[in-house]
Design brief:
By secondary structure, the protein is of the alpha+beta class. The chain is built from nine helices and ten strands. It folds into three domains: about 70 residues, Winged helix-like DNA-binding domain superfamily/Winged helix DNA-binding domain (Arc Repressor Mutant, subunit A, Orthogonal Bundle); about 90 residues, Periplasmic binding protein-like II (D-Maltodextrin-Binding Protein, domain 2, 3-Layer(aba) Sandwich), CATH 3.40.190; about 70 residues, 3-Layer(aba) Sandwich (D-Maltodextrin-Binding Protein, domain 2), CATH 3.40.190.10.
């Protein structure tokens, strides 16, 4: 069957808001129309996506999966339309994907100074599928954190960063200067695959609420610092490598220039 992108957008709006009224407002359509479109979409897919009550809308397991898929599909379609417009306007554009906590701005500024006529954009790479923006065409290059699927990619190592344990500020371990992995034995951990969260904001909110401890890269902990959380180095926890990644068959001079500039800019002295 062909996937109806309009109905997919409607579903994504309802899934985001968990509310038909607010989703209809965002989409500028009447709520009854939206309800009929979602019901028709479920019939076309032959599965239930939403559980409706008088007060709430919840996603079924199939609905959660489709919502995850929809974000990538809709983003990829938007990127394809943008590329078509760029070709029509004769615009050169470089899009860089980046993992949470990693900062690529210095490299982009250095690149722009040499290529002022090239438009640059960034797109976040979700931590559980960091390579997706490269493979679906949303980005030409990624500044990513291993591990991820490296098949068909050209990888340039950049650096290495430690992981820290994030926990509520009032946790008994929070007063320590540093930890070892043995100190975390018996603690409830939020790291995948124990519990996969849809965003880092959600993960840190769960940690602050006392749902567990998470080992995260230091740059992520620094980017999401908050007073109700503590972060402690774990001396024997394996670190994480950072790298630049591109599709192995990409050979454009503009991309090669960016890789050269970004490697020199992002690698530690």
């Amino acid at each position: 069957m062909d996937l109806d992108l309009r109905k997919l957008r409607y579903f994504a709006a309802v899934a985001e808001h968990r509310h038909f009224g607010r989703a209809a407002e965002q989409l500028y359509i009447a709520q009854p129309v939206l309800s009929r479109q979602i019901k028709s979409f479920e019939q076309e897919l032959q599965c239930t996506l939403l559980v409706r009550t008088t007060r709430s809308v919840e996603l079924t397991a199939a609905g959660k999966q489709l919502y995850e898929e929809a974000q990538g599909i809709l983003a990829a379609v938007a990127a394809a339309v943008r590329r078509v417009h760029d070709v029509d306007r004769r615009v050169q554009r470089l899009v860089v994907a980046f993992s949470p906590g990693l900062h690529v701005s210095d490299a982009i500024r250095a690149f722009t100074s040499r290529h002022p006529d090239v438009e640059t954009d960034v797109v976040p790479a979700r931590w559980w599928e960091q390579d997706a923006p490269l493979r679906d065409g949303r980005a030409q290059v990624g500044y990513l954190r291993r591990p991820f699927d490296e098949a068909g990619l050209h990888i340039i190592p950049i650096g290495h960063e430690p992981r820290v344990a994030c926990m509520p500020a009032e946790h008994p371990l929070a007063c320590r200067g540093q930890l070892t992995s043995a100190d975390l034995d018996g603690e409830r951990m939020l790291d995948a695959p124990t519990r996969r969260t849809s965003s880092l904001e959600e993960k840190f909110e769960l940690i602050a609420s006392g749902h567990g401890i998470a080992l995260v890269p230091l740059s992520v902990a620094q980017s999401y610092a908050r007073p109700d959380l503590a972060r402690l180095p774990v001396t024997d926890a394996p670190g994480i490598d950072t790298c630049l990644a591109v599709l192995a068959d990409r050979r454009e001079k503009l991309l090669r220039d960016f890789l050269e500039i970004a490697t020199a800019t992002l690698r530690p002295a």
